[in-house]
Design a protein that fits this description.
308 residues; alpha/beta; FAD/NAD(P)-binding domain; 2 domains; five-stranded parallel sheet; 19 strands; elongated; binds flavin-adenine dinucleotide
Length: 308
C-alpha cells in the first residue's frame, strides 16, 4: 500500500500537519520516533501557546494534540524511521527492514538542544535548567539567572533575559566570543549582564524545589565558586535531526533543512516543517504553523500530480 502522506515526527509540526492532512481525507500515517510528542514532553508549563489562558503542561498539550490528530483518522505509529530513499516517487522509508511507501512526506523531526551534560541535568530541566529563554524566561522575572555559551544565541538569550531578570551572568569557557561583534557589544554595554570568562559551569546546586545555584570554575586560575542563581540557560546551540535526509534536502551550515516556498524542499513532494527547518524561531506555535503549511502543500502537490 502506498500512503498519500507520511509524516515523520509527532511534535507540534508533525501533529499539526497530521490534523490538516487527516481532515483533507489523506489518511496520514505519522511516526513518533524516540520522543513521542516531541520536545514539549520534556517541559512543564507552556504559557505562550495561544488558546490556553492559564497555560498547559507540555506533556498534556502533546497528548491532546495526538488525540486530536487521531480523532480525524491519523494513524500514529510508535516507531523510528531508520532509512529513506526519496530518489523517486513513490518515496520509500524503512523501519529497520519494514518498507513503507509514500506519495508525499513531511519531515518534522525537530532539532535537539545541546546541553552541558551536567550532573542531574535531566532531573533539573524545567526546575532551574533550560535551553530556551523565550520559552522559560518569564518564569524567572526579577530573579538571578546565568546563561552559558559564547555564540550569537547566547548573546541573544542574555539580552532577552536582562529585560526580565534582576541580574544575568554570561558564562563562557573562552576569553573570546564566537558571536558577532555587534551582539557582543550589546551584551558588554548592558549593565544587567555580568560577563564571566574564561569560566565554565561545573555542576548545579539544588534543593527539593529545584536549582539554587551553580558551581563555576575559572579556567585560568582553577578557582571554583558557587554562584547563587535561580536559573541556568544553556545556549550552546541545537542539532537539527536532518542526517537521515541529507541527499534529498539542502541544509545550512548547522544542518537545518533549507526550504523554498512554504516548507517545500528541493525534492518535489518532500516537505520540511518545524524546528528542523527553522534556525530562527524554534517555538511550538511556529512549528505548528509550518506543519499546517506542509500538509496543505502536500495536498496541493497530490492534486497537481493527479495522484489522489
Ligand atoms: C524544555 C523545552 C521547553 C520548551 N518550552 C517551550 C514553550 O514554552 N513554548 C514554545 O513555544 N516552545 C517551547 N519549546 C520549543 C518547542 O518545544 C519546539 O519549538 C517544538 O517542539 C518544535 O516542534 P517540532 O514539531 O518541530 O519538533 P519536536 O517537538 O522536536 O519533535 C520532533 C519529533 O520528531 C521525532 N523524530 C525524530 N527523528 C525521527 C525519526 N527518525 N523517525 C521518527 N520520528 C522521529 C521525535 O521523536 C519527535 O516526536 C521548548 C523546548 C524545550 C526543549
Amino acid at each position: 500500500m502506498t500512503h498519500e502522506v507520511v509524516i515523520i515526527g509527532t511534535g507540534p509540526a508533525g501533529l499539526t500537519a497530521a490534523i490538516y492532512a487527516a481532515r483533507a481525507s489523506l489518511n496520514p500515517v505519522i511516526y513518533a520516533g524516540m520522543l513521542p510528542g516531541g520536545q514539549l514532553t520534556t517541559t512543564t508549563e507552556v504559557e505562550n501557546f495561544p488558546g490556553f489562558e492559564h497555560g498547559i503542561m507540555g506533556p498534556k498539550m502533546m497528548a491532546d494534540m495526538t488525540a486530536q490528530a487521531e480523532r480525524f483518522g491519523t494513524k500514529v505509529v510508535y516507531e523510528t524511521i531508520t532509512k529513506v530513499d526519496f530518489s523517486k516517487r513513490p518515496f520509500t522509508l524503512w523501519i529497520d527492514k519494514t518498507e513503507i511507501k509514500a506519495k508525499t512526506v513531511v519531515i518534522a523531526t525537530g532539532a535537539t538542544a545541546k546541553t552541558l551534560g551536567l550532573p542531574d541535568e535531566a532531573k533539573l530541566m524545567g526546575r532551574g535548567l533550560s535551553t530556551c529563554a523565550t520559552c522559560d524566561g518569564f518564569f524567572y522575572r526579577n530573579k538571578v539567572v546565568a546563561v552559558s555559551g559564547g555564540g550569537d544565541s547566547a548573546m541573544e538569550e542574555a539580552n532577552y533575559l536582562s529585560k526580565l531578570c534582576s541580574q544575568v551572568y554570561l558564562i563562557h569557557r573562552r576569553s573570546e566570543f564566537r558571536a558577532s561583534q555587534i551582539m557582543v557589544d550589546r551584551v558588554k554595554n548592558n549593565p544587567k549582564i555580568k560577563i564571566m570568562t574564561p569560566w565554565t559551569v561545573e555542576k548545579p546546586v539544588a534543593d527539593a524545589s529545584g536549582l539554587t545555584g551553580i558551581i563555576v570554575k575559572n579556567l585560568e586560575t582553577g578557582d571554583s565558586t558557587e554562584l547563587k542563581v535561580d536559573g541556568l540557560f544553556m545556549a550552546i546551540g541545537h542539532k537539527p535531526n536532518s542526517d537521515l535526509f541529507l541527499p534529498w534536502v539542502d541544509v545550512d551550515s548547522h544542518g537545518y533543512i533549507k526550504t523554498t516556498v512554504h516548507t517545500a524542499t528541493k525534492t518535489p513532494g518532500l516537505f520540511a516543517a518545524g524546528d528542523i527547518a527553522d534556525p530562527t524561531f524554534k517555538q511550538a506555535i511556529t512549528a505548528a504553523g509550518m506543519g499546517c503549511q506542509a500538509a496543505i502543500q502536500a495536498q496541493k502537490f497530490l492534486e497537481e500530480h493527479e495522484e489522489q
